[in-house]
């Protein structure tokens, strides 16, 4: 058995509001995110299989991540659903198309936890999510590893 890791990179633009934050990022602001999704599995060995030699078709991974994450978050504003943000929510959702109200503070770290749950739920049973990396800026990123979360 040979396990192989595949990584696909995704880019999206997203703004967020960090409710209760005490630094410069307490204002609504955005980032150019880079998401790296790494899965692990064994290459298909069935001679007649159309994906012979592949762990997973990169297109299949791209479709999953685009459908469940990128299409929802690209050019969106994320706001944590808190009592503090309640009065902002109607104003923003009335005036902008892509406002996502989420149950967590939309930090780089919490985004990764959410992404991991979403991706893991849709991967084929023979493929595992190995790790995620999310760059919030060119020099700042967070990582999620499956082995750390067992």
UniProtKB/TrEMBL annotation:
<comment type="pathway">
    <text>Purine metabolism; 7-cyano-7-deazaguanine biosynthesis.</text>
</comment>
<dbReference type="GO" id="GO:0046872">
    <property type="term" value="F:metal ion binding"/>
</dbReference>
<dbReference type="Pfam" id="PF01242">
    <property type="entry name" value="PTPS"/>
</dbReference>
<keyword id="KW-0456">Lyase</keyword>
<dbReference type="InterPro" id="IPR007115">
    <property type="entry name" value="6-PTP_synth/QueD"/>
</dbReference>
<keyword id="KW-0862">Zinc</keyword>
<dbReference type="InterPro" id="IPR038418">
    <property type="entry name" value="6-PTP_synth/QueD_sf"/>
</dbReference>
<comment type="similarity">
    <text>Belongs to the PTPS family. QueD subfamily.</text>
</comment>
<protein>
    <recommendedName>
        <fullName>6-carboxy-5,6,7,8-tetrahydropterin synthase</fullName>
        <ecNumber>4.1.2.50</ecNumber>
    </recommendedName>
</protein>
<keyword id="KW-0479">Metal-binding</keyword>
<dbReference type="GO" id="GO:0070497">
    <property type="term" value="F:6-carboxytetrahydropterin synthase activity"/>
</dbReference>
């Amino acid at each position: 058995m040979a396990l192989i890791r595949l990584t696909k990179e995704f880019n999206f633009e997203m703004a967020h509001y960090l409710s209760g934050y005490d630094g410069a990022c307490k204002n609504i602001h955005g980032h150019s995110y880079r998401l790296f999704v790494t899965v692990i599995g064994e290459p298909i060995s069935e001679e007649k299989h159309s994906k012979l030699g592949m762990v997973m078709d990169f297109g299949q991974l791209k479709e999953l991540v685009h459908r469940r994450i990128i299409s929802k978050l690209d050019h969106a504003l994320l706001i944590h659903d808190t009592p503090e943000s309640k009065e902002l929510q109607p104003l923003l959702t009335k005036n902008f198309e892509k406002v996502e109200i989420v149950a967590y503070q939309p930090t780089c770290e919490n985004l990764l936890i959410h992404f991991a749950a979403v991706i893991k739920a849709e991967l084929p049973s023979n493929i595992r999510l190995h790790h995620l990396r999310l760059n919030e800026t060119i020099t700042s990123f967070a990582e999620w590893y499956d082995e750390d979360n067992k």
